Amino acid sequence: MTLIPPAVPPVPPVPPVPRPDEGSLLIHQALVYGTDDAFLASTVPFCLDGLHADDAVLAVTTEANIDLLRQELGDAAGQVEFVPSDRWYRSPGRTLSAYHRYVERHTVKGGHRRVRVIGEPVWHGRDAVETAEWTRYEAAINLAFAPCPAWIVCPYDTRSLPAPVVRDALRTHPQLVTGPGPRPSDRYVAPTTPGGAWKRPVAPFPAPGRAAAEQRFGADLGRARAFVAEAAVSLGMSPSGARRLVLAVNEVATNAVQHGAGHGLLTLGRSGHRIVCDVTDPGRTGADWYAGYLPPDPARRRGHGLWAVRQLCDLVEIDTHEHGTTVRLHMDLS
Amino acid sequence: MTTRADRERRVQDMAHGDHLCLAFADDAEQRRVVTAYVSAGLELGERVLYFADRRDPREVLSWFGSAGADPQRALASGQLRVTTAEESYLAAGSFDAEALARALRQEVRDSLTAGYRGFRVSGEMGWALRHVPGTDQLERYERRVTEVFAGQPASAICQYDARRFGPHALDAFDRCHPGAVEMDELYSAPGLRLVPGFRAGQRSLRVVGTVDYRATDALAAALETTLDWSGDVWVDMSALEFIDLAGVRALAHAAGRLPADRRLHVVDLAPLLCQVVGMVGWDETPSLIVTARETAS
Description:
The complex is a heterodimer. By secondary structure, chain A is an alpha/beta fold. Chain A has nine helices and twelve strands. The longest helix of chain A has 21 residues, at about 240-260. Chain B is of the alpha/beta class. Chain B folds into two domains: about 5-180, 3-Layer(aba) Sandwich (Rossmann fold); about 185-290, STAS domain (Transcription Regulator spoIIAA, 2-Layer Sandwich). Chain B is about 35% helix and about 25% strand. Chain B has a seven-stranded parallel β-sheet with strand order 1-7-2-6-5-3-4, sandwiched between helices. In chain B, strands 8, 9, 10, 11, 12, 13 and 14 form a seven-stranded mixed β-sheet that branches. The interface between A and B is medium-sized, with 28 and 22 residues.
């Protein structure tokens, strides 16, 4: 009896999949790395194991990391979808929606058991408000994708990122994959944590010494829409940008009229390179900061408004305070 | 570009020189428009000529009678004449566009000479589906009628039954008319009108104005009515000024309620709103077909 060497090396066993939060199908991990090798040591097996398990694999990362991954993956790179981060991370609402579409397309409709995503957000060039809201976006992922069979690894490059951004990654991701294997992040703060860990008051607007237009609204939202269109255009917004803002403001104001105080206040002005419009509802104090980040069921009667608003605008902040709820809509002027 | 809104006119707003197409899909609509048109003509002291086709002339006369007009007196005096196409301009067994256009011109003159204050004519056009020789001249005839009546104290309504003429033929004949009769609104309030009609020969609902939270239910109810129509439903958004998410949802919801072989076509929607349909995932509704308005900006 001769021993015949196997023609194909045995397939390495797929490492055990880390257990997600209870009741959640999602695995959301931060990969804090400081070298190219450390990046590849985690992401290459992540992709290969995924392809082996017939998962759909999407890699959204820097151009440099895409090059590294492609080289290292060789032929397998052809089965991975690559998107440069700066084309993917445009606004929190749009990005979250794009991920949701990806997951739906490949699992519910595409027949994959699961999707794996490398998602490296863009932090450079973000101001304080943007950084804060993108951080909350990372936190909201834990809620938005909880029911989805998705494994998301978010790389954070310590060579270039400010230390607070890396520290926040430990708060927004339930697990860390730095080093040998996944481990829970002991700094993790779940989005629904009581006590308002993720609540963040909006900055005073208009800033001291700056002007903003105000308009009260009630049941007749036609006047509110006219006010927004006129004020936005007069501040230099394009007609198409103004139409987006009008649609967004109308949705938020409709919530106030139908489910809040029945009336409210619009404050619209310019802040740096943005048009900012606050919609303040004095009758509502319980709004969640993550409202509009959770994908709505298309068949449901309600819940689409804020989801769409987060995609219509470049940035949305929701702040519940003692005087009600302020939804702040930001539109870039460029 | 001429929009539907510009070329549609309610029957009670018709004026001299009008030559309108009435496309209808139910008998009540036909009866309502025809009765209003003829009764108003009699009341105004105009001479009225009616060419029936599928309807029995006696039935048509009963419409006018029940609407309060006195058709028997008008018939006796010669102010009203109700006949059929077969017994009049098709009596020779073929259709002669020029001859009929000349005859109508003469009718206008004779009516004025006899002291009437104008002339109005309406005809059921169903005979055009029976392969009468000369039918191919029908489009030319319709254009001639427009010329003959222009500037005259005369008007005409040509009736096309959409259940019998296909969308293609209906559209072709509709285009031969400078205008069309507007149907009764399904909803009308300051800021919003929901008007059924035909667009490119297809039964459609025209949304004119603004749909915000106060009009969501009205839109949903009108769409519910369209579900009872046969075939695909077209929602014409060319005169839409604003619609919110709940309104767009009403469209998606109505589309989702159609049986598998029917579609809801939302046409001439602002490009931004087409994006919104995708944002919420309503573009995954197979029966909802959304087409963007072509805009300059």
